[in-house]
Design a protein that fits this description.
Blueprint: E1 3-5, E2 10-12, H1 22-30, E3 39-43, E4 51-55, H2 60-69, E5 73-82, E6 87-100, E7 103-108, E8 120-128, E9 134-143, H3 144-157, E10 161-164
Parallel strand pairs: 6-10
Antiparallel strand pairs: 1-2, 3-4, 4-5, 5-6, 6-7, 8-9
Length: about 170
């Protein structure tokens, strides 16, 4: 049975799960990307990490949805693969979003928070639809677990530990 540490968000694979090399874990995580998901996993070299999972807030297909939703906060998961301990260390960082003419501008949220979090943003709007009848224009829900859970499940299936990092270095 897989283990879980509530305080750190650390999850352990089930005993006997075959362990893949770091490159295999990386490939499987990048393989989670799909055009229909409102998030993506990208190379993190520019941020001195292995991978970054983020909402597709600047993607042309998605930013209009995020803008209409009036999303105020998003978060990214910064990830490092530790081959020696078979751990993926992950740290969440929260960002504020300001919208200017429908274009998002991200800035690190003004708070001392970094570590592990769960975030849910939701809402809906009513007005006149394309058929000019009153009705629901949009409804949305962005839950950080939609982004985090597939990553955790993939890491565990690779025989690795998913270790949430709240303090210190990744």
């Amino acid at each position: 049975m897989a283990g879980f540490d509530f305080l750190t968000g650390t999850k352990r694979p089930a005993a006997g799960t075959p362990v893949l090399p770091a490159q295999g874990v990386r490939e499987r995580l990048l393989g989670l990307n799909r055009p229909t998901a409102p998030w993506q996993i990208i190379d993190g070299a520019t941020e001195k990490v292995d991978l970054i999972a983020e909402w597709r807030i600047v993607d042309a297909q998605w930013f209009e949805i995020f803008a209409k939703a009036g999303l105020k906060k998003v978060f990214r998961i910064y990830m490092k693969l530790d081959e020696a301990s078979h751990e993926l260390r992950a740290m969440d960082r929260e960002y504020s979003v300001e919208w200017s003419a429908g274009i998002p501008n991200l800035s690190l949220a003004v708070s001392s928070f970094k570590g592990q979090s769960t975030s849910v943003e939701f809402g809906q709007a009513f007005g006149f639809t394309e058929t000019l009848a009153p009705g629901q224009i949009y409804k949305y829900k962005f839950n950080s677990n939609e982004l985090k859970k597939p990553i955790q499940d993939t890491v565990l299936a690779c025989g690795w530990i998913y270790k949430g990092v709240a303090f210190g270095k990744l």
